[in-house]
């Protein structure tokens, strides 16, 4: 536990869930190892400047997730945590899409022509007032939702993107089924808080942290054909990148963009 006290704020996620996430990450990172006793509830309360009730609720969540065992009158002890193996990325972009499609099931939530948000319309180079095809899906594995996918495409793709077709074939295959060839993909990765819609479909709490990957897909003529937002919980998903040594000085290696004037 850091030496200096930290004050959790009653904004966004509830205080006890903020504390749960903080302690959970420390356990997963090995700050607290198997067999270690967590600081006492009194110490946690003082360090994070929250009530004992808040600490008890956070500890209960840790126990419910199987990260600790709570011995009455003795303390809370860390249980064995299965460590994530270092990810070995050996798939291309398209191979990754195929793998996701083969390893998950899809539920189609939305498939309709609608007015896109202004920012999306501009990225897709659509004139003001022009409708686009909107498709929202959830991909899950063994009954657990992994990704909420929100896609917009030019209206010319609408005949290809019927609910039955979307349930049978991955979206990228449908987009290329008319002869369209994929070109450049620009991806941004950020984080956001789960709104009620995302929380419901990803089965997480409202205001829980989410990974957000935004992709702008072009065809081989450099025309934008898809704006896709992928939302996933970091409790189940992570984004892994491997940058070959000969690409360290290229734009494909990516870079951080700081939105400050």
Key phrases:
261 residues, alpha+beta, Arc Repressor Mutant, subunit A, Chorismate lyase, 2 domains, six-stranded antiparallel beta sheet, two-stranded antiparallel ribbon, 27% strand
Describe the structure.
There is one protein chain. With 261 residues, the chain is of the alpha+beta class. The protein folds into 2 domains: 15-78, Arc Repressor Mutant, subunit A (Orthogonal Bundle); 93-253, Chorismate lyase (3-Layer(aba) Sandwich). Helix content is 27%, strand content 27%. The chain is built from 8 helices and 8 strands; from the N terminus they run αααββαβαββααβαββ. The strands form 2 sheets. It has a 6-stranded antiparallel sheet. A two-stranded antiparallel sheet has the order 1-2. Strand 1 and strand 2 form a beta hairpin. Helix 1 (15-28) packs across helix 3 and helix 2 (41-48) crosses helix 3. It starts with 14 loop residues before the first helix and ends in a 29-residue tail after the last strand. The relative contact order is 0.10.
